[in-house]
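Take one record.
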Amino acid sequence: MSAALNQAVVFESDLFERHRHFRTDRATLPLRSDEDVVGLRKHVRERAVAIALSLVDQTKLVTAASELARNTIKYGGGGMVHLDALEDGFRKGVGLIFVDSGPGIPDLDLALRDGYTTGGGLGLGLGGSKRLVDEFDIDTRTGEGTAVSVIKWKR
């Protein structure tokens, strides 16, 4: 990770290492612009293809990644994403951890409800992303930042 990227995001979360014993590889990418979202989508699709996720599961994972990356930029002021290759002995998966040092989410239950938005969109970002993946966790602290962890396992 570059020094500039490391300095830009200081929010610390237990989510960063929750699945470390399953991790076989990690790439860390910046999330500051639409171009970064496009690059992330490419990397996520490559990881998904590498473990032979079905086309439907690839699409679900890439869609969730795109939504969460855009949230990181729009609401968190930018940040980074850890893209993990996972293997638990029985199955392979792709894990993503989005992190920012933004304002945090003051009411997480409300933010996870379909239709809730503070940005004028459809309000499907967090709740919709949660439905698209197999595992979904959020660590958010008002005034400090947010980390969102998602995993899609090969079936």
